[in-house]
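Subject: sequence -> structure tokens, single chain

Hey, anyone have a minute? Need the predicted structure for the following. Not urgent.
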Amino acid sequence: MSATFSFGNDLIVVVNNAGMGILDRVLRPCFNNYSALSEKIYFHYDLYDGPIDFSELTSEQYMKAYGIMKDIFENDLQNNLSIGDSSCQWAIDLWFNEIKPKMQCSPLYRS
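Reply:
Had a minute. Here:
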């Protein structure tokens, strides 16, 4: 089974359920500091076991979410290199190889 991050039409990153569970434990507390973001992003994931969906955010909200994720992956995880008892190199690779490029391709992304 798998779960997905959705950044818009055809901008989807698939992660196995175990991996998504680990990422959720890292990402959700940071997004919960911004309730408007958290409610929109996690609505389908929590209610229907659907994607963690960034496509319904405004461009401003999207850029805030991008900044949060960038900070988590490029600072927190790279400096800590573990999530609980597990190495997080796979999550860092997922960020640089799949999530970040797809987030940057979204029409909501502003450079």
